[in-house]
């Protein structure tokens, strides 16, 4: 592989101390007319955990795991990491890459699906960072959404199986399986993918594959972390409403699998481990939450295979089940007709 090429991990970023929280949230919502009182309410979620989002620590661990796997598999790409909304900022990382002689890079986003906020916005932020760096900025090609990759499915299937096994013995045979992802405005969901509606369809495909891996045929898809003006329609049902419906139907145990997230960041540890867990307790439901991929060996091996395939010029960039032209076309994944104010997205 060429010595002027590199691998770039692109993530959302998150605060690493109380003083970072409000500046970070202002970065996330810049240009969206979100008032400070709304940001202050979201900030309380971070302060509950010392003002620290786990996402940056996860990225450091993932970067180390990728470097190790690259070395073991003969992938000669140096690994860099840049964030969209907090240190290390993408522009700073690209500037360092240029200094190091990197002229082109493969970008892997910590977001697996098609939508404006989970794909197109990453591309826009990469372009902005390149513009800041100027003519010496490396060329960046983003790996397409990887939700259907066997490594991604395997990581969630293994985590879901562990969550089931953590339930009391008497409940393990009959838990309800609920998959969750970040809610987005309905207009954004309708514009996702080249033909529209990709976000929900992709989530449903992952849910079906993971459930099948567990030998379970029935499951539900719910959404979490809704934000923005109440008048703007977002994807439903909310996880709390879903838990309530299950309890009313006589459910005793539920396993939540957060397939919309690749790491245990704030919207997992607060929205699920705090809020949803409290809802489940209030309803008398036993709840187990599956881990996100993190540095699961299946997930790390997937990243290595994608990087190697992309660098070798395979048409589908290592993602099974579709041609390269089927996703990430010019103009797909538009923002939609309604603004999305998401002060906690991806953190």
Per-chain topology:
Blueprint (H helix, E strand, L loop, with lengths): L4 E7 L6 H11 L7 H12 L7 H18 L6 E5 L6 H10 L4 E6 L6 H18 L5 E4 L7 H16 L10 E7 L3 H5 L7 H16 L6 E5 L14 H10 L4 E5 L8 H4 L1 H13 L2 E4 L7 H16 L35
Parallel strand pairs: 1-2, 1-3, 3-4, 5-6, 5-7, 7-8
Which runs of at least 5 residues are low in confidence (pLDDT < 50)? Answer: 320-327, 338-347
CATH architecture assignment of the largest domain: 3-Layer(aba) Sandwich
Number of strands: 8
* Helix and strand element order: EHHHEHEHEHEHHEHEHHEH
The percent range for strand residues is 5-15%
Average residue-wise pLDDT: 91
Name of the top-level CATH class of the largest domain: Alpha Beta
Q: Report how far apart the termini are.
A: 33 Å
Question: What class would the helix/strand composition place it in?
Answer: alpha/beta
CATH topology of the largest domain: Rossmann fold
Sheet having the most strands: 4 strands, parallel
* Shape field: globular
């Amino acid at each position: 592989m060429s010595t002027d090429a590199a691998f770039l991990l692109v993530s959302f970023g998150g605060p690493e101390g109380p003083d970072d929280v409000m500046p970070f949230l202002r970065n996330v919502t810049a240009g969206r007319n979100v008032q400070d009182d709304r940001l202050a309410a979201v900030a309380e979620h971070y302060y509950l955990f010392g003002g620290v989002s786990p996402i940056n620590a996860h990225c450091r661990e993932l970067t180390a795991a990728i470097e190790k796997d690259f070395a073991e598999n003969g992938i000669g790409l140096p690994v860099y990491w840049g964030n969209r909304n907090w240190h290390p900022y993408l522009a700073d990382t690209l500037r360092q890459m240029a200094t190091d002689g990197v002229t082109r890079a493969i970008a892997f986003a910590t977001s697996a699906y098609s939508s404006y906020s989970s794909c197109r916005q990453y591309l826009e932020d990469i372009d902005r960072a390149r513009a800041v760096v100027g003519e010496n900025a490396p060329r960046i090609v983003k790996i397409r959404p990887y939700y259907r990759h066997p490594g991604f499915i395997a990581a969630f299937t293994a985590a879901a199986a562990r969550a089931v096994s953590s339930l009391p013995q008497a409940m393990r045979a009959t838990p309800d399986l609920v998959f969750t992802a970040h809610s987005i405005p309905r207009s954004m969901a309708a514009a996702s993918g080249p033909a529209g509606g990709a976000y929900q369809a992709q989530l449903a495909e992952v849910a079906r594959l993971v459930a099948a891996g567990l030998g379970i045929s029935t499951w539900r898809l719910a959404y979490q972390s809704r934000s923005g003006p109440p008048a703007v329609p977002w994807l439903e049902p909310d996880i709390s409403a879903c838990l309530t419906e299950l309890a009313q139907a006589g459910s005793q145990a539920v396993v939540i699998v957060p397939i919309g997230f690749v790491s245990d960041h704030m919207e997992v540890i607060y929205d699920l481990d705090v809020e949803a867990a409290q809802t489940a307790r209030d309803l008398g439901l036993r709840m187990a939450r599956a881990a996100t991929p993190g540095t699961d060996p299946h997930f790390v091996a997937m990243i290595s295979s994608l990087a190697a395939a992309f660098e070798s010029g395979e048409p589908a960039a290592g993602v099974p089940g579709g041609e390269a032209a089927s996703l990430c076309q010019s103009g797909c994944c538009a923002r939609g007709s309604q603004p999305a104010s998401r002060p906690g997205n991806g953190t």
